Amino acid sequence: MSITHNQEGVFTIVSMAGRFDALCAREFKSVISLLLEADKKRIILDMAQVNFIDSSGMGALVGGLRGVAKEGGEIRIAGLIPEVHTIFELTRLHRIFDIYETTAAALAAG
Amino acid sequence: MKAMILGAGKGTRVRPITGTVPKPMICLAGKPVLEFIIEHLVSQGFDEIVINTSYLSDAIESYFRDGSRYGARIAYSFEGALVDGALEGSAVGSAGGMRKIQDFSGFFTDTFAVLCGDAVIDLDLREAVAFHKKSKALATIVLKEVDRSEVSSYGIVEVADDGRIVRFQEKPRPEEAISCVANTGIYLFEPEIFNYIPSGVEYDIGSQLFPALVAAGAPLFGVTLPFTWLDIGSVSSYWDAVHRLLAGELRGYRPAGEEIAPGVFAGVNLAMNRDNVTIRPPVVIGGSVAIGDGAVIIGPTVIGPGSVIEAGAVVEECLVDGYTRISGIATVKQKIIFGGHCITPQGNAITIAEHDIGWIIDDARHKQELSPLQQALMELAEGL
């Protein structure tokens, strides 16, 4: 798993790749903490390269969303591959996140 | 009359459903495709049936046995060998399978039918036989018009005005198709057909025998009759087949079980409080199923026997295999849950074990142990 981020206007795009498991969950949490410390709280998660998510990954996403929302920010999710989207649906996570087909769509949503 | 059913294929295009079940044993609303075919054949006067088997042959042979409970006499032509205690298939092709039976006993002595084991039909076979005899055909193929976008899944034929078949195309691209008339895998033959099928070699009906008949100028005819044809050649056609079956397209079909509400059929030993569950038909529920309070079941849906739909779960347009547990937090929409996989109607599959979703969907007989994190996610989702 690798996590990188870059700024697009008011949004910070966090790009992830590989397996979103327990190992990655720790890295993800620290990235979110650093962004919040830098007052970057409008976040788009580009998950197009994520091919797997387990319950640790889902827990980290929910934890991240809670932390960001507490600071008045938001997390948008973009680019889920069908397999990962299915898991979002099964667990109803798709109801708590704003999900967009692409990063561009997430950016354009205002 | 005599018939042969082709049951030896591996069903690679229906994977992962055919990982554990041979294609003819795939169930439509709880009943194997092959059982539909046998019952239909018997109703049309075909009561001496040989089924060739190879891949997962036991599943077929132990289910139908000698056919007496269907009012038929059924035997099997196994294609393979017992090697080190395990059955190994060695398919000889569809025409090769016919030839093997004929070489074995001379079984085919008069006009006979050969059907693929992967489609449910309500065809008037007597009418097809009448056409076949009137045409003095050596072989007759039952044809069906399909949508041009689907031709690449089928053998396509060109038929002359007199009903003779003049050309074949195997699974053409839509823009190259010579017609939209498809071979349904339902054939009628005269025993003289064996003059055109070599012994002891792999030989296919669609791609070898029929082109050879055309080349030889033998009387090969096609007949188009109105009938429902629910083929399960691929995951998406399987999905469509169940939907069409539940929509009532197959003549004479009624789901098994008791109709507990309009369009809702259930087996015995159902653990469900009907006042606390929302069900929208058509829904077919197998025996010994438990459905918890607050669950929502939206049809067309099939829930296999022994399954547990926990309180609060939402199951919408799903084909759920037997012994499946669906967690109360789950929203399962347009999925096939089968053999440890969660499959979309397009055939994309995720493996339940690999993707760590056993805490949401699992075999109902597994002992369930949730990690603290899964427990927390469960509680979160319950509020959604």
Strand order of the largest sheet of chain A: 1-2-3-4-5
Q: What is the CATH architecture term of chain A?
A: 2-Layer Sandwich
**CATH homologous superfamily label of chain A:** STAS domain
Uncertain stretches of chain B: none
* Whole-number mean pLDDT of chain B: 93
- Ends distance of chain B: 60 Å
Number of domains of chain A: 1
CATH class of chain A: Alpha Beta
Taking all Cα atoms into account, the compactness measure Rg of chain B is 23 Å
Topology of chain A as a string of helices (H) and strands (E): EEHEHEHEH
How many helices of chain B? The count is 7
The fraction of residues in strands of chain A falls at: 25-35%
Summed over residues and divided by their number, the pLDDT of chain A gives a mean of 92
CATH superfamily grouping of the largest domain in chain B: Spore Coat Polysaccharide Biosynthesis Protein SpsA, Chain A
Question: What spatial form of chain A do the alpha-carbon principal axes imply?
Answer: globular
Tell me, briefly, the overall form of chain B. Answer: elongated
Stretches with pLDDT under 50, minimum 5 residues of chain A? none
The largest β sheet of chain B comes out as:
8 strands, mixed
Number of domains of chain B: 2
Calculate the terminal CA-CA distance of chain A, rounded to whole Å: 29 Å
Summarize the largest interface: chains and residue counts: A-B, 19 and 24 residues
